[in-house]
Write a structure and sequence with these properties.
This protein has 23 helices and twelve strands. It is of the alpha/beta class. It folds into three domains: 271 residues, no CATH class; 206 residues, Rossmann fold; 35 residues, no CATH class. Strand 9, helix 20 and strand 10 form a beta-alpha-beta unit. Helix 4 packs across helix 16, helix 10 runs antiparallel to helix 11 and helix 11 crosses helix 12.
Length: 581
């Protein structure tokens, strides 16, 4: 069995004493090492101005240990999830649960079949933290535009992702048996070569992906790289290796060095089976107890060790690479359903820009079967307060979700669910679509509703986007209308981008006639000639909530209920004309 160096042999103990892989091998993001030598050159693929990683020197030590066959469970996952992000003013708790990001990301943004699975939790985290600095958003959009324009670059990025996932998988296999150890090391080196070759195919990239190409160039310039490539011949071991061994008194290998690697046409890396057996017997009778596996293992260690920092840097890019591949997968999934997406224009507030959303759809509907109907929203100023009315099941809640997702994804820097989008940057997002109740809830419906309004004013910052579903629906219409009017009258002081739905149709009609604020706008669910919702929206206030249509669809008309009662009593239902619901 190959002997481990004392430094590597101590890794397991140090991991245990530190309380786990995340705490020992990756110091918290923001703890930048003072020693420049401890800072790995990890390419930052998400930010225009690179954000430094924490101290990854422990990860380098672990990777050497893992290559030798040691336990590395959980450490590379911690490395990927340590991806540093720029500061964000968004608070995920105010919107993420009601956008179902934990379900939407693994489904709507999943990579194509056959590709490695996403780190969905990490992608969800990135989506929930749009950067404050617009330069980072623009840099991410530039990457996606370059991927749109260059199929070879997309293919190279996918190959690179597959290679680093295979590299990680091979490193995570724990084995000390020499035959398995040799095979695993070969798998690691083959995956490493494939990853660097994919990086080479990115030469000429102009976006942040140029940083990946530069990483590949750095690896290829290492003196040990050529030796590794010549050693791992994928076509048939067409290399001969001259090595120098130092043997101890017990016959084990104490020292190892590569003299040279020379290509040849008629020989293999090792002698044939019979000659290897003869050489081993001669070595045994001479007291030299080393086998061919030990020599090969030491040979692989010799070429891998100088590249370990670069391997860690590649593994650390996994999350950022998956961010772009997930965005592209969402684009392809939408287009496969006839739903175009776009990279939006995002304008700073105060510049007089007009918000536009054309062909908007809700990607949450990807979680359900059936057709997804896109719609257009009328142009509106940045501080417009939009009231939405219409029947139940007309698509109001799904529209509100779609608006929130378009704003969130647009500020993150990826494709939004619309054919064309012009957005006004918001410092935060507040979304309240459903009011969940539980057995421990102290307040009744009205108290819960008022608490929701109070939280809105506490959380909302000037210029933020606020989206409210069925405001004040938990109380009687007279009191609810008064509270609703108060909210619409006071909120403009914060100049928010507000969307609110309501069933107070009479109040909405009166507000449309005499608006309390100049920025008030109204949208209603569009109906077809048979009064069925088209799931599109047009300016105006709905005149009816179509309760009778819903009652007919669900079988809750007077005639339906009388038939149910008659059936229970065992007699025929009355045959009079049906009463209105």
């Amino acid at each position: 069995m190959p002997r481990r160096s004392p430094e590597i042999a101590s890794v397991r103990r140090r991991r245990r004493d530190a309380g786990g892989p995340g705490r020992f091998f990756i110091k918290p993001v923001g703890e930048v090492p003072s020693d420049p030598a401890a800072r790995l050159p990890v390419p930052d693929l998400l930010h225009q101005e690179p954000i430094p990683w924490g101290d990854l020197s422990g990860s380098v030590e672990l990777t050497r240990y893992a290559f030798e066959g040691g336990d590395s469970a959980g450490v590379f996952e911690a490395l990927v999830e340590a991806l540093p992000l720029a500061p964000s003013s968004f608070t995920p708790a105010t919107f993420a649960p009601q956008l179902y990001l934990d379900q939407l990301v693994p489904s709507g943004f999943a990579l194509p079949e056959g590709a490695p699975p996403l780190h969905a939790r990490l992608i969800q985290h990135v989506f929930a933290h749009p950067p404050k600095d617009a330069a980072h958003r623009a840099a991410r959009q530039a990457v996606l535009r370059e991927l749109e324009a260059s199929p070879p670059l997309r293919e190279a990025l996918g190959r690179y992702h597959g290679a680093i996932r295979r590299l990680r998988a091979a490193l995570e296999v724990e084995t000390t048996e020499e035959p398995s150890l040799v095979r695993r090391k070969v798998q690691v080196l083959v995956a490493l070569i494939a990853a660097v070759e994919a990086l080479g195919a990115m030469q000429g990239a102009q976006s942040l992906l140029a940083r990946l190409a530069a990483l590949g160039e750095t690896v290829r310039s290492e003196p040990s790289w050529e030796r590794l490539v010549r050693l791992v011949d994928l076509e048939g071991n067409l290399a001969a290796v001259d090595v120098r061994l130092q043997l101890g008194a017990d016959g084990t290998v104490r020292g190892f060095a590569i003299d040279r690697i020379r290509e040849r046409d008629d020989a293999h890396l090792l002698p044939g089976p019979f000659l290897r057996f003869v050489q081993q017997m001669l070595s045994f009778f001479r007291g030299h107890r080393f086998g061919e596996s030990e020599v090969v293992v030491r040979l692989f260690d010799e070429v891998f060790a100088p590249l370990t920092e670069h391997v860690v840097a590649m593994l650390a890019t996994t999350g950022a690479v998956e961010f772009y591949l997930a965005a592209w997968a969402f684009r392809e999934r939408a287009r496969a359903r006839g739903l175009p997406v776009c990279l939006p224009e995002v304008h700073a507030p105060g510049g007089g820009a007009v918000r536009r959303l054309e062909g908007l759809f809700n990607p949450v509907l990807f979680l359900q079967p059936g057709r997804v109907a896109p719609c257009d929203l009328p142009a509106a100023g940045e501080d417009a307060l939009t009231v939405i009315t219409g029947p139940n099941s007309g698509g109001k809640t799904r529209l509100l979700q779609a608006i929130a997702l378009a704003q969130l994804l647009g500020q993150v820097g990826v494709f939004v669910p619309a054919e064309r989008a012009v957005l006004i940057e918001a410092p935060s997002l507040f979304l309240s679509l459903v009011t969940e109740t539980d057995a421990g809830q102290v307040e009744g419906r009205l108290g819960t509703e008022l608490s929701r309004i109070r939280r809105l004013f506490e959380e909302l910052s000037p210029g933020a986007m606020a989206i409210l579903d069925e405001l004040c629906s938990g109380t009687n219409p007279e009191e609810g209308e008064e509270i609703f009017t108060n909210v619409l009258s006071v909120l403009p002081g914060l100049r928010p981008q507000l969307f609110v739905s309501t069933h107070f149709l009479g109040l909405a009609a009166r507000l449309a006639t005499a608006p309390p604020v100049a920025t008030l706008a109204f949208l209603q669910v569009e109906l077809d000639a048979e009064e069925r919702p088209t799931y599109r929206f047009v300016p105006g206030v709905a005149s009816t909530s179509l309760a009778h249509k819903v009652a007919e669809r669900l079988g809750v008309t007077r005639a339906d209920l009388e038939a149910l009662v008659a059936a229970k009593l065992g007699r025929a239902a009355p045959r009079g004309p049906a009463s209105p619901p």
